[in-house]
Amino acid sequence: MSRRKHRKRSREDLKKRGVQIAIGVGVLALIAIVLILKARKPDANPADPTVGVILPTAEAAVLTQPTPTPLPEAQLEQLLAAGEPAFVFFHSNNCVQCIRMIKIVEQVYPDFSESVPLVDVNVYDANNENLLYRAGIRAIPTLIFIDRAGQAQGYVGVMEPEALREQLQALDGE
Q: Would you kindly state where each structural domain of the chain is located, as residue ranges?
C-alpha cells in the first residue's frame, strides 16, 4: 500500500472515530439531561385551573400539604411503642416469589386492615436499609408477625393464603 493511500485511509479512520466519539458524547449528554429533569421538582402547571385560586383555609391546607407517609422503620417504631400488633412484609417488586406473595397479601390482608397494621418494606428502597439491617433480612419475601407484647415470629418464602390468614387472625384475636 502506498503512503498516500495509507494517509488517506488514516484520515478517514480518524474522521469515522471522531464521528463515533461525537455521537457517544451526544448520547451521554442526552442521558444526563433526562436524569437532571427527572430529579428536579416539577413546577406548578400554569394550565392547572386551581393555580391562583384562593381557597378557604382548611381546604388550602389539605391541598397544599399532603400527608407524608412515614417510612416503614418509623411506622414500625410507632406500632411497637403503642403496643399494637404488626405485619411486616419485606419484599421487592421484581422477584418471582415476592410477586406471588404480594398477590396473596393483596388477597388476604384487606380482611385485617382495620385491626392489624401492615408495614410494607420494599428492600430495594434505599430509605429502608437501616430497617433491613436491624431486622437481619437475608432473603425475600420475609414476613414478620409481631404481637402486642412485641414478640416476633418470622417466615421466609411464599406463605399460602390460608396460613397467612391464620397468622393474621392470631394477631387480630389477641
A: 3-64, 72-172
Summarize the confidence of residues 30-37 as an average pLDDT.
58
Q: Is 150 left (phi over 0), alpha (psi -120 to 50) or beta?
A: left
Instruction: Report cis status (omega within 30 of 0) of the bond before 141.
Output: yes
What is the Cα–Cα distance from 129 to 138, expressed in whole angstroms?
12
- Give CA separation, 46 vs 38, 43, 134, in Å: 19, 9, 45
This prediction has a pTM of 0.61
Query: What is the edge-to-edge ordering of all strands in the sheet holding 86-91?
Result: 118-122, 86-91, 142-146, 152-156
Quick: pLDDT tens for 58-77. Answer: 444 444 455 567 899 999 99
Say which CATH class 72-172 falls into.
alpha beta
Task: Work out whether strand 142-146 and strand 152-156 pair parallel, antiparallel, or are unpaired.
Answer: antiparallel
